Amino acid sequence: MKWLMKILGKRSKNRAKLTLVELVMVIIIVGILTAAALPAYTSFIQKAYTSEAIASLGAIKTAETVYYAVNGCYTADWGELGMTSDDFAHNGWFLPGCFGLTGSCTDFTAWCNGDNGKEQVKGVYLKLTHDGEVETCTLADIMEAKPTYVP
Fold it and tell me: Are residues 126 and 134 in contact, defined by beta-carbon separation less than 8 angstroms?
């Protein structure tokens, strides 16, 4: 606070009150710092949402890998994987209806459609292929694939 006092001018040591100009300057400085920090905060939140979706897609990949090891084939059937909406109950933002599955015996793709989740994650679209690659995609890609969603 001493540096602010030097900037604003000389002050009497006995005077403890802020003038209106000094108060306005402090408010402006706090506003500028807040405006600078807000985009970074928003970016961190978006990364956190995406990480939550990737973790859930990873659970689907693990279930598919186990299924493939036992049966020698992938599946697009949630029942055969033994997965239900309870497997996604830990998600804070993505509801079970966000996660879809498409595929055949030789490959699968798990989808995350954030539009089926809470308001904050609308617009988060991801796909995970059988080789473990997570990519962003569009809502049109998901609609075209017509995945089956978690029951």
Answer: yes
Element (H, E) at 28: helix 20-71
CB 127: neighbour CB atoms within 10 A?
Answer: 22
Q: How many whole angstroms from its chain centre is CA 5?
A: 43
Site of tokens 């599955």: 101
Q: How many residues does the chain have?
A: 151
CATH architecture of 20-149: 2-Layer Sandwich (3.30)
The CA distance from 12 to 146, in Å, is: 73
| CA–CA gap between residue 12 and residue 14 (Å, rounded) | 5
pTM: 0.70
Kindly report, residue by residue over 14-53, the tens digit of the pLDDT. Answer: 566 678 888 888 899 998 888 888 877 877 887 888 888 9
